[in-house]
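Structure tokens please, single chain.
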Amino acid sequence: MPVMNLIDAIRFGLEQEMEMDERAIVLGEDVGVRGGVFGATRGLFERFGPERVIDTPLAESSIVGVAIGAALNGLRPLAEIQFADYIHPAMNQIINEAARIRYRTNGAFHCPVVIRAPFGGGVHGALYHSQSLEGLFYHVPGLKIVIPSSPHDARGLLRAAMEQDDPVLFFEHKRAYRLVKGEVPEESYSVPIGRAEVRREGTDATVIAYGLMLHLVLEAAERLSREEGIEVEVIDLRSILPLDKETVIASAKKTGRVLVVHEDNKTGGVGAELAAILAEEALFYLDAPVMRLTGPDAPAMPFNPVQEAAFMPNAYTIADRIRELVRY
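Here you go.
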């Protein structure tokens, strides 16, 4: 089984999807001859040609609008937003059009669009190249949102996204692109959307994360186990919309303590929803309040390396928060 990093697994998946279904098209800024700003679409233009790998103008609302129109006419678009930070001009298309087409037509039309968008910090991208935006879309019925943390899941979730008849936002953490490696099966496979994975068994506390944060949580958990005997159960959400409530609640009942870690801003984020779910459905199993460790409610991530590091959770701050939770 070949070992790939995250971006190679995504490129491999895109190529397989285009091989398997001639309705699949890729569109976005510089996805053609250049192969994408991160190389995710490298080689696709040469192999599948300009009718299926389409360079677009620098206009995100147009990219998503064209993808919606193509989907309504029988194609399976894979749209790329070069950086998630620039997805805002397309929000009207995503929220008011793609997410609601099934509802507004009483099921007569569907919108099978996959929108890929690199997100997150740790790459010195500063204001317009570091944002985590999943919370802005998390509120929208009609969307599915996936955030893979491993090459295996990236390929499998891409397959699952292409199997949907409704829009899927596919957020990819830029820092994880070449940092995270793992085995990827050569044959096509699907990782179900809406199903979390317990990455590490534990008894003292549950920590829930996704994307790059999952790896920092695992690093903190291993250190706490080795040095202090604290055993943390780690859940990788993989899909934040829909959420795998069953896995989360079962782990909360098992450990009695829950910490949610994400890079997105704290207020109104995924952690807030998880805390509410656990308060509603697992309150009397908890031995401590549900805690959150997130990015601050600051407008943007700074360029200054010291301030950027302060913005993002890391294995040390995560370990400190776990100790606080366990000692509560």
